[in-house]
Amino acid sequence: MSAVPGFASSKLLRALFDSGARAGVDVGEVTRVLGVDAAVLDDPHGWVSAEQMSRAWQLVPAASGDVAFGLRAGAETPPGVYGPLDLATMSSPTVADALERMVRYYRLVGAMSELSLTRAPGGEGTLRVRLLTPPQSDMRHYFEHIFALVVTRIRLVTVSSREDWSVTFRHAAPADTSTHARILGARVRFSQPEDALVIGAPTMRLVLRTASPALAAMLEAEEARVTTRADAPIDARVRAALGATLRDGDASLAAVARRLSMSPRSLQRALGAAGLTFATVLDGVRRDAAERHLAEGKLSVGEIAFSLGFSQASAFHRAFKRWTGHTPLERTRRA
User: Which tens digit of pLDDT belongs to each residue from 66-78?
Assistant: First the structure.
């Protein structure tokens, strides 16, 4: 499966509609309101716009009348519904590997939001969710669904009863948080700066009962093939190319274009057609790498700045403050 910039896999909408149908929602009416071709929902390779996907996460929960719809949808979604995304995560050797693959594969199927994972020096992991579409009036069910899905799958595929995780949401607490406690665990906080799931090092190291090295290797090879072939989504191709050019100390448009056998102008046009710029993709790659390096604690701030192609450490400081609201040193202390 290859992603289409600005679009989300119809599998994601189909899964939402299945959850809605179980809650008594007239999904046919929602399909009509969204303007989605019903045939797309039955197409395993179909796509809907990111805006339609975002709007669906308002309409379906509202039509259900269930104040905990997102939580229940995440907890009750059966394994396999998300296709390669499910296979990639559940065949992983450990929880940490599963989350890393979840983040990578989500980029191939969903353009509504971005998942990121950072690791602290001691092994603790933080999974963050950030919307890429314009903010909608109420997206709390979507965020609650993501984290409910993750913690439910962790319980399903591991043998430990340890629940050393905590969840933060930016939205305010509802009147009744008992379902949050039952599905997400005891440590849930609202009105926080970010939507994040923090998982303790012992759980991150847990071995999955569903681990399959052979399947995982096959999916890794498929992911590499998808992100480098000529018809792959341009943002995925640029991100993959930047991973190589940054290692060579070059973050320029020209270097990436050479890597992709394109002219710089052709690359800019392709990105523009997808609603992107080279600067925004580079910014995202740098931010993800910076967060990862700081969490691992193996490189100094100066080394991180150099590895990301910044001419000076001060330029990296300014960029990191713009991305996160914190300086690199402040983020290190928080970790």
Answer: 999 999 999 999 8
* Apex 92 CA angle, 72 and 116, nearest 5: 65
For the four alpha carbons of 65, 66, 71 and 74, in that order, the dihedral sign comes to: negative
Mean pLDDT of 102-127: 82
Place of tokens 């070059």: 250
Query: What pLDDT digit, counting tens, does each position of 256-270 carry?
Result: 898 888 899 999 998
Residue with more model confidence, 54 or 3: 54
SS3 sequence of the chain: CCCCCCEEEHHHHHHHHHHHHHCCCCHHHHHHHHCCCHHHHCCCCCEEEHHHHHHHHHHHHHHHCCCCHHHHHHHHCCCCCCCHHHHHHHCCCEHHHHHHHHHHHHHHHCCCEEEEEEECCCCCEEEEEEECCCCCCCCHHHHHHHHHHHHHHHHHHCCCCCCCEEEECCCCCCCCCHHHHHHHCCCEECCCCCCEEEECHHHHCCECCCCCHHHHHHHHHHHHHHHHCCCCCHHHHHHHHHHHHHHCCCCCHHHHHHHCCCCHHHHHHHHHHCCCCHHHHHHHHHHHHHHHHHHHCCCCHHHHHHHCCCCCHHHHHHHHHHHHCCCHHHHHHHC
Assess whether pLDDT exceeds 80 at residue 186: yes
Rounded to an integer, what distance in angstroms lies between the CA atom of residue 230 and that of residue 114?
Answer: 23
Give the count of beta carbons closer than 10 Å to the beta carbon of residue 299. Answer: 13
